[in-house]
Write a structure and sequence with these properties.
Two copies of one chain form a homodimer. Chain A is α/β, with parallel strands linked by helices. Chain A folds into three domains: 124 residues, Rossmann fold (3-Layer(aba) Sandwich), CATH 3.40.50.720; 174 residues, Dihydrodipicolinate Reductase, domain 2, CATH 3.30.360.10; 84 residues, 2-Layer Sandwich (Alpha-Beta Plaits). Chain A is built from 14 helices and 17 strands. In chain A, strands 7, 8, 9, 10, 11, 12, 13, 14, 15, 16 and 17 form an eleven-stranded mixed β-sheet that branches. Chain A has a six-stranded parallel β-sheet with strand order 3-2-1-4-5-6, sandwiched between helices. In chain A, helix 4 links the parallel strand 4 and strand 5. The radius of gyration of chain A is 24 Å and the shape is elongated. Strand 12 of chain A pairs antiparallel with strand 12 of chain B, so a sheet runs across the interface.
């Protein structure tokens, strides 16, 4: 049986789960994985108090682990970018493999890290960086190795999905849904990277590099978070047969790759629309075989540990031996060119001719109106202003922004027009 | 770059797609898989006319491929059991790896084949044998390698799922739905192995061997097909919040493994219930991480070729090196002990006291009634007989059969009581 000598950096929730699984499931891992794990050293700043096992070599200086000559593979689960980057580069230069759950690290330093790994003839595992316990990286680069990926669309931020599900199911406001997520440990005390779309965009960037063989370049990923979504939008979306999800998206067309993460209307007939709570899901559309979808827990100590250990088993067996920075004709560009239908919600003065004026503005810009909803004003308080919801034909990002600005320039339209993408699905 | 010398047996729809992909996507496979494929020989009974490529060594004697000393790996895509078994055992004995899409072969001869492979230090790839282009074998044995699987539930027969979807969406009868499936090439001219549950049960047997480390033993897999499902059942299921799907199921409890494939009511809140048409999906429930779900095309030339080639890439990189027949305490038993709620539909005489009699029969057998539907008789023609639908509490297979027999013994109940399982989902 193969033996892998592991050095673990980080003994928090995720590190603790990795350690617990390696120790308590050692027999299962030998049967299922054919690998025996030797835990050479654990780096934990708080030392022994957070590592409740006997006979483990513990250091409070995490760099010890990265330079320990007995360690074959460094597991980095401390999070954050700067110190993690130092640890990982040290380990790679020392000829150690690395397994990390750190999407921010990969998204921001992926090119250097994979180049360094190649130079030192070692591997980097990062299954846990996207979709946690759901093996989407494995599916993408191994299961679908013989297919050409055209696009992917994923619900990759559990916090955002939980908040949207809460709002949709319980008519909660954004604020109270976020509070509930925090109470349940599904959102951090500062949840900004989750709800402003950064986290999902980083994951999209990683998937795009794998799917389309383009270098990591987070500056070319366009994204927005879910903060602008209001209960009223979820209601109108439902009326039109959609759910609103935060969708990380990547697409290859004519050798141009566009990557983005936006609040998006998803048809209620699709599987993605059915993904609730804090769950993640990724749809990958390949030439010839069409869509495959992967659903599961996107975060949490056990799911993340499961992905980390799956990477360790793969490394014990020789790793992936893939040149992630391989030359390709594909080029990553900002996603301005991507065409998609859009949802617009306008607050307008309830006066004669306003719909005609809005409609002709669409016509002037040569944009079709696919659907329009204007309900009767129900409450006396809102008599002066009504909501109008319009689904446009397929337009580019630039056209969509231009249209929004033009709408807001109309004297009858209040500022703060809502605008969300619509996911077209199979094509 | 690694090179793998491939011998292909079978040049029908699937073999043709394997060959086409290996030839036309060779550059993509080098970039994504890091492997160059050398097509050493193609065995096709009809010879050159079915292999429209120049410079390929073709033989009409398939055994030539299995004994060709230049071949590293034999791809078996001829289907059927007996001759495929001969070819595969010959190749294994000659020290060649094997990749097969043949679930019947693996389900019936798995133990011998994996033993033979081990003795000869070669690998058998069988990703394509379950769920076609959806990499469920890879997810199960690699992605979830660090988890203990408790159960799986899958829609693994595309023909059955297409027929049920047609019946549900278009109110087609079983017969006309089957006819449509045949017209679309989704059902064979003799569809019996698909619609009587054999195909799904074979796949369940393969998944169980992997998930629970038990030997292949198809004689212990209990199954039924979809022939008994009527439009009326789909209607009642919908009323109760369920869809009826053909579910392949495996479960581990107290070291006992039960494997089955039955028509099953699936809660409409679950992803499995949303899997329509000929698509496949597999839900795997693991300790610690809960459910992950894999969805995609379960058959067809391109999806099957995608899975076959993914196996070839894995073999080029060293394979899985797993002892599939490893010793374990788990024991496969017939699934009589599995407890599940049941759906019963009875045709009864519309006379006073009949519901009371049926209810007390449930009470006598100590089985709870979770739901009961009896609609008013609407048409004058059916005044003498009405349908009664009952959802029972959780009972074993034996109890369910005993209850059905007792119900049919009542003079007021017509014979032909329908009985389907209900899938409980997470636990």
């Amino acid at each position: 049986m193969k033996t892998l000598k592991v050095g673990l950096c980080g003994a928090g929730n995720v590190g603790g789960a990795v350690l617990r699984t390696l120790i308590q499931s050692s027999q299962l891992l030998e049967v299922q994985g054919g690998v025996h794990f030797d835990i050479v050293q654990v780096g934990a700043r708080r030392g022994k108090e957070v590592v409740p096992y006997e006979g483990i070599n513990i250091t409070t200086n995490l760099e010890d682990v990265a330079t320990n000559p007995d360690v074959d593979v460094l597991v980095e689960v401390i999070g954050g970018v700067n110190f993690a980057y130092e640890l990982v580069t040290t380990a790679l230069k020392e000829g150690k493999h690395v397994v990390t759950a750190n999407k921010a690290l990969i998204a921001s330093h992926g090119n250097e890290l994979f180049t360094l790994a190649k130079e030192n003839n070692v591997e980097i595992g990062f299954e846990a960086s996207v979709a946690g316990g759901t093996p989407v990286i494995k599916a993408l680069r191994e299961g679908l190795v013989a297919t050409k990926v055209k696009w992917f669309a994923g619900i990759l931020n559990g916090t955002s999905n939980f908040i949207l599900t809460e709002m949709e199911s319980n008519q909660s406001t954004f604020e109270s849904a976020l509070e509930k997520a925090q109470e349940l440990g599904l959102a951090e005390s500062d949840p900004s990277l989750d709800i402003n779309g950064t986290d999902a965009a980083q994951k999209a960037s990683i998937l795009a590099a794998l799917a389309f063989h383009v270098p990591f370049d987070f500056s070319l990923v366009s994204f927005e978070g879910i903060e602008e979504i209001e209960l009223e939008d979820l209601g109108y979306a439902k009326e039109l047969g959609y759910s609103i999800k935060h969708i990380a998206h990547g697409e290859l067309e004519n050798n141009v790759v566009c990557v983005s993460a936006y609040p998006t209307l998803v048809d209620n007939e699709t599987l993605l629309s059915q993904v609730g709570k804090e769950m993640n899901a990724l749809e990958i559309f390949s030439e010839g075989i069409g869509s495959t979808v992967y659903y599961g827990p996107g975060a949490g100590p056990e799911p993340t540990a499961s992905a980390v250990i799956a990477d360790l088993v793969d490394i014990a067996k020789g790793g992936w031996d893939l040149d992630i920075n391989s030359d390709d004709q594909n080029k990553l560009e900002v996603s301005d060119r991507k065409r998609a239908a859009r949802y617009y919600r306008l607050q307008v003065n309830d006066e004669p001719g306003v719909i005609a004026k809005i409609s002709s503005l669409f016509g002037d810009q040569n944009i079709s109106i696919e659907a329009l909803i204007q309900h009767e004003a129900k409450s006396k308080e809102n008599l002066e202003s009504i909501s109008v919801v319009i689904i446009s034909g397929e337009i580019s990002n630039n056209e969509a922004v231009k249209l929004k600005n033009a709408l807001e320039d109309l004297p009858e339209v209040f500022s703060g027009v809502k605008k969300f993408r619509i996911h077209a699905g199979e094509k």
